[in-house]
Structures are given as C-alpha cells and as structure tokens.
Amino acid sequence: MDVTGHTSSGGHGDPPQGPRKAASIRDVAAAAGVSYQTVSRVINGHPNVKEETRKRVDAAIQTLGFRRNATAFALASGVTRSVTVITSNTVLYGYAATLQGLEEASRAAGYALGVRVVTPEDDLDRTIAAAADTGGGVVVIGYDRIGAAALDRVPAHVPCAALVEAPPLGRTPSRPAVWADDREAARAATEHLLSLGHANVHHVAIPASTGTRRLAGPRAEGWRQALEAAGITPPPPSGKGWDAEAGYEAGKKLARNKDVTAILCGNDDLALGVLRALHHAGRRVPEDISVIGFDDAPHSAFVTPSLTTVRMDFHGLGRAAFGLLRAQLDTDRLEPAPVPAEPTLILRESSGPRDV
Predict the structure, then answer these.
(1) Are 248 and 273 in contact (CB under 8 A)?
(2) Residue 304: which pLDDT band, with cuts at 50, 70 and 90?
(3) What radius of gyration, in Å, describes the C-alpha atoms of the chain?
(4) CA 64 to chain centre
(5) 89-94 — which CB contacts under 8 Å span 24+ positions?
(6) pLDDT tens digit sequence for 85-94
(7) 221, 255 contact by CB (below 8 A)
(8) Contact, 309 vs 293, CB < 8 A?
(9) Which residues are registered as beta bridge partners of 202?
(10) What residues form DSSP beta bridges with 117?
(11) What is the pTM of this model?
C-alpha cells in the first residue's frame, strides 16, 4: 500500500515540474535598483518613499511575481497570520484527525487556524469569500461532495491546499493537494480476505466525493478491482452513509444472506454498526463472517472482537496539506511538505479463515 502526497498547480495530466525558487525581497531590490530595506518599506506602505521609487519597486514585484513572506511579516508587524479550513464535518474520525494535524502544523508555524463548517444549505461562494478575507489562505477538506464542491469554487488567486480522495490514475487536482492511496489499500484488504479462503467479499461503502454511484469512490474501486482481478463478480455494494447507524442497517441485510462470509467496510464507524448487526443476527465474527474496517479509529482496537482495519495517517495528511499551503504563503521557504505514512493493514480479531 502506498501513500502519495501529490501536488499540482496545473490541470489533469500535467507533467511534473521541478521546484522553482520563488523571488525574494533581495531579488526585487536588485531588479528595482534599490536596497532591500526600501523594498520592505514599499511592501509595508511606509510613507517616506519617493513615488518614482515606489513605482519601480511595484513594477519589479509584478515582473518577478514576488509574494511577501508571511512568517517574516508576522514577526515584524506583530500580526498573527491565519489559515481557514473549510470542511463539512468535524466529528468523524478522518476529519477530526486531519484537523488535528492541520492545527498542530499551523500552530508550530505561528499561524492561527480557523474552521468553517459548510452544509448543503450554505452559500459556498460567500463562505469561501469570507474565509479568503482572513488573508492567510484556505485549506479544503474535500473527502465528500460538499468539500469537493467547495474546492472547485476557490478563486485561483486565493492561496489554497486541499485534502482529497485518491483521484483516478493519471489525473491530479487543479490545486495543490495531498491524498492517501486508499484505492490500493482497499484492493490489498480485499485480496487479504480472498487469501483466507472467502469466495467473495461484500462491501459497505462510504459516499464518494464525486458522482452518485457507490462504486465511484477509490475504496470501492480498489475493492472492485481486486475481485475482478480474481475472476469474481463484485456483489452490489451496500451503505447509505458514513456512521454506525448506516453500517447497522447494511449489516442487517447482509446478515440474512448465508452466502456472505467476508465484508469490507468503507470506514470503522460503518464496521462498528455491521458488527452490532451481525451480533444481533447470531452471526459469529470471524467464525461465520470476517469484517475489515478502514481508518483505524481509536475505538477499533477496543471493540469485541477487535477490528481488523486499514490504518490511515490522517494527522500526517493534515500536516502535509498545511505544508503545501505554507509553501504558497512563505515564498522564501524551500522545505518540502511532510510526507504522510503509508496505509497499513492492521490484523486483529475480526478477520480470519473461512470456516468450512
């Protein structure tokens, strides 16, 4: 299972480009024929600068594409820079852990972090405009349809980074983004269940961030690809939400089918509901049915039976996303964004060989 921290400032299929050093205040000074102290005075609106000099500096700034170093400005002015996170959820584990990673990274860099929770009823354009007014850039958590729609509406001039589902192979988001290869992780988890002797693997899916089909998300795609590679026709996926209640409803239906011996769930909350439904139906886990979750939420190791799951480094993804945004705000920095850990299949009690 690989985790890929991808960045792109172009559209789909853009070839990778090497890092280019951003123009510094000294580059602007040299181009304008003034001292860097004079450039600093122009940038900060100091009144004691000749109009002709100011015009030369402004022209050099435009030509070189110079952007003020946010951290240096904050230290010099005493003004705290801020970053706004746009998300549709702060409760589910993946979102909450991502927010924690963002907060830790932004605080360490001297940034204040604000959060705007969007709903289907919100005016996204107004919400994004308000977030952009903070002046420190925007991070969009685009794991779902609302987040993906918000990302599409962020104006090109607003510094932005995103956390997204793994995109289709050969395509990249239009803004700098980071993601985990959960498509490959789901494929590997499905292959593990098949290796235990299960003839088929059913899937309780989370909603995809784009489209309307439950097979559209990368986790569902990885599951389907593993089954098709093994010559198995994927059964119809279950699931109509993200939480344990949705998992419970899907689990009740699967429990009635005696041919079901293995279930891959789109997240651990769904798996929790599935485990409860199987218990109520008298189906033993893992003797009758093996269950694998996704994300490795804190509760997954402490349910009975403990949950086999795919561990996702959401904290690392959050830190990496802030790193992508900071590279746009602090243009003198050349440090690469942190790289999250790869997804890992964590074997626990809820999965085992088919009981024949």
Answers:
(1) yes
(2) very high
(3) 24
(4) 32
(5) 89/117, 89/141, 89/144, 89/242, 90/115, 90/117, 92/242, 92/243, 92/267, 92/269, 93/267, 93/268, 93/269, 93/295, 93/297, 93/298, 93/314, 94/143, 94/267, 94/295, 94/312, 94/314
(6) 999 999 999 9
(7) no
(8) yes
(9) 263
(10) 87
(11) 0.75
